[in-house]
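Subject: sequence -> structure tokens, single chain

Hey, anyone have a minute? Need the predicted structure for the following. Not urgent.
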Amino acid sequence: MRVAIVSFLLCLCLALTGCSVWMSMTGDPEPDFSLIKTGSRRMEVEQQLGSPVESIREPDGITVDIYEYKIGDEPRPDHAMGHLQLDFLTFGAWEVVGTPLEVFRGEKRRVMVKYDADDNVVTVKSLQMPKDKKKAQQQSDSSRQVNSKDSPHMEGVLAKDQYRDDAKRLAYALKEVHVSKVTLRKEPRALSEQDVHILLVRYNCYDSVRNRGAVFANDFVDNTDGTVTDRATSLMWHQAGSLSTMTWSQAQEYVRLLNESSFADHSDWRLPTLEELASLIESQSMENRSHIHPLFSGKQADYWSTDTYGSVSAWKVDFHCGCIGQGLIDGYPSYLYVRVVRSLG
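Reply:
Had a minute. Here:
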């Protein structure tokens, strides 16, 4: 009888044990980053990191991949032996503690690898793991509609008078800075959340939710005609932005009117792409109480981009919170501001 009881308890213990023991014996060794460097082949990278969790191919053949890996998750036979002993001593009850310990073992990390058209590594950059997304501001001031009195020509005159005599802002713009030239996409495109995350990382654009700690280096010059040039991106911006909110469809008409009136002596204005608009986001709230350079008006919050998200939304930038979101373009459309842009050269 005693032998039967002992055998039963032994079988019960063996049935209950195993999760923490098995998990301790499995896991992935840490990647060898000495093999992941400029010039390495994609095959060498993925032997260390596995398949990417996010990937985007740019028109110029550049591919940006994001990989996840763990540190501290290598197989640990010593841990397995310890779990096994505790399982026997507690008749399997240790699994209540041991299994969660193994589940949360190790720390997840991310790395971005940029490849050229031949799948050779161009750059490698560590990333922060994404945190829970905060709800970005989605409500707009829909009480203000497009006013027929707010003609594009009048806005240009008001902007010119407003900023020409603002010596402080002018001095801010003319300070000497050293930045690299960046070419940003100007063609409209449908973007996913993954696309947005990758473009923020690629161009080091700040977003208070998705890419905190990033800083895009601008080189602004006040043209004293209601426009501002960013020499870092070779883009010319409408300085004041629209005086009223409007739907995305109305924004297209607004751009057409600006071009018909040759605002600031130019007729090739357009809605900015999301990455162009995101290049204006400052990493902290400026003296105009907005995440945009003091050369620009900080009163308006949300601005339309030309890029869409699905069939009923378009991407926007909220300069009050320094974050990217979406506005509705169909059904019950959102009313946002417009800051047009044109490419130089």
